[in-house]
Design the sequence.
């Protein structure tokens, strides 16, 4: 069994190609390093309580749809 690990990716990469690859591993967050510290803190809290969090600069619904289409 695997421990209950939650993953938030902190990255400089704004492109969708890397995000698509990560979404296949069910990451819980993808935060840009350029995001305000408040956004990172909120992401940590959200993920800690079972949610997901993605930088506001990323249109995650479009990325999820794209990832499904490339699977």
Sequence:
């Amino acid at each position: 069994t695997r421990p209950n690990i939650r993953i938030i990716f902190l990255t400089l990469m704004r492109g969708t190609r890397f995000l698509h690859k990560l979404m296949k591993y069910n990451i819980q967050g993808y935060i840009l390093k350029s995001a305000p510290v408040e956004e990172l803190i909120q992401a940590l809290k959200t993920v800690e309580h079972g949610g997901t969090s993605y930088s506001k600069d990323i249109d995650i619904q479009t990325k999820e749809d794209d990832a499904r289409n490339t699977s």
Observations:
- The mean pLDDT is 82.
